Amino acid sequence: MSDRKVVLKMVMSLDGFVTSPDGTHEWMFEYFGEESGEWNRRALDEAGVHAMGRRSYEIMGPHWAASEGPIATAMNEKPKAVFSRSLEQADWGPAEIFGDLAAGIADLKARDDDGTVLAHGGPGFAQSLSSLGLVDEYQLTTVPIAIGAGRSPFAELRGHLKLDVVEEQRFKSGALAQILVPKR
After folding, report:
1. Which positions of the chain have pLDDT values less than 70?
2. Pairing of strands 116-119, 95-98
3. Is the dihedral of CA 161, 44, 88, 121 positive or negative?
4. Which of 15, 73, 140, 168 keeps 20 to 30 A from 174, CA to CA?
5. What does the H/E/C string look like for 46-85?
6. Which domains are delineated in the chain?
């Protein structure tokens, strides 16, 4: 039996938000570059399946399906696990739809497939994963901008989430990428 790692990958503002109050996140893109692209490609290369909620799936699918390059290839060719209670069909595939988050993650972790379960998505999906204790590793990139308000991936925690920093890399843009694991 396998025990694949669930990796949550997100970009955050300095004050801990992943989207502005209106759900936009364009403010983060000015901090992307060649260095951060290499960091992101490493996570994509290690992924065996991309996990996401319905909204992220519906936004990312058309974008990546119409894109080219190594990131688009990794996003399009690797299997997707979509967590939704309302989605009936997943056309951007290969894709599998799961209704229950905890059971679906347990299923994906138990499979003998290669690579990590790389969780993408918005703050709601991240909140659910974090509050249920389903994340084995956080890959967080903090960009040097404070937006004052928005949605945090940690807003639904019932207690403190203590983490150990196991790796970090600062980019020329001022962004700081960190790999953190929950203290167990």
Report:
1. 1-2
2. unpaired
3. positive
4. 73
5. HEEEEEEEHHHHHHHHHHHHCCCCHHHHHHHHCCEEEECC
6. 1-14+43-132 (3.40.430.10)
